[in-house]
């Protein structure tokens, strides 16, 4: 009896020690210099400069000339989007882009919110900053940074911004929103040196928020934005008050995940698996292996030799549009692969889709955006941040057509302080752009829970 008690105390003490040690782990990041050449003498220029998206006749004429000289290639019969972007439908998209799409009008739409740039660690960081027009008496706006991924941009959040900064419900929280472009994306300058990964981006965004005067703030992210904001929480858990995500693939699969996969179909209640979990995970070979292989070819290219294919995409607007928009088809609903038009306009307008493409085209950022995969995967899958749990309140919006389904059990492995886990009614990978109302409502619910206002 004494022996069993002693063994139990030792095991319990070991578990307690390991948990406490993991709680005390904080991700480390050092200041970098990502500008060209050596850093200049003197301190960093912390000037914040207004920025406007612009265009010109020369830019539009060059685009039209390149579109006019594209060389169409016929798709295979009955191939839909299973071989990539269907060429017949691509011609329709290109025709709309060439003849009907009004980039000048979309530039005005982009400029409806205030844009800025500021130099951090040698590179100009672009961001949109939207303050609420009215804040209820006795309250203050809640600062929220929202970070995009690939092949998206800050524009993904344009449908959400008014829902957060000017909510119609008087009981809703009012937000002050900052939407930066990851360096190398959109109108943020690309790093000039190797090694700029998600932790570096997180470090830069902490500097940005501090420069804007925020002592504490909340963060939201999907796709790469998931990892960048997760790293922000790991770097400064006392500054990031809460983290809201809509994408959280397991960064370090462990025993609980393995056991749940092996036994979850037969004993779902043991792992708190829902009907949606069972539907999205099984059969494992089809749902987790085959499906991932079908949709991850781009990732291998971008994680190894991004500059090669990127050079072609940077020269051809039609190639760039096909490469980006194919993701907005299949990643929104994998069944869209079987449609002649890829289901593109079932969830998005061509104007919105082409605006995102134009942000890549006019800024010439496709290669630098793809390099972000090389910088992150090139360092291996066993980086320090993959081993450190996130001990701040976390909310997760689980959209049914997300690329990788993550059950609640798996999310809690990385985010032990999971506060809300919301199965969403509809939506896929680009949920902020596809379902801005659902996303904004879930952010509201999460923050009300954290702020004890619900």
Percent strand:
5-15%
Overall geometric form: globular
Number of helices: 20
Spans of at least 5 consecutive residues whose pLDDT stays below 50 are 1-22
Give the biggest beta sheet.
Answer: 9 strands, mixed
How far is the first residue's CA from the last residue's CA? 48 Å
Topology:
Blueprint: H1 2-24, E1 48-51, H2 57-68, H3 87-99, H4 103-110, E2 114-120, E3 123-130, E4 142-147, H5 161-165, E5 175-180, H6 198-211, E6 217-221, H7 224-235, E7 240-245, H8 255-263, H9 275-281, H10 284-295, H11 297-304, H12 306-315, H13 317-330, H14 344-347, H15 350-363, H16 366-377, H17 384-387, E8 394-398, H18 408-414, E9 418-423, H19 431-434, H20 436-450
Parallel strand pairs: 4-5, 4-6, 6-7, 7-8, 8-9
Antiparallel strand pairs: 1-2, 2-3, 3-5
Question: Can you offer a commentary on this structure?
Answer:
The structure is a single chain. The protein is an alpha/beta fold. It is 46% helix and 12% strand. The chain has 20 helices and 9 strands. Strand 4, helix 5 and strand 5 form a beta-alpha-beta unit. Helix 12 packs across helix 13 and helix 13 crosses helix 15. The N terminus is likely disordered.
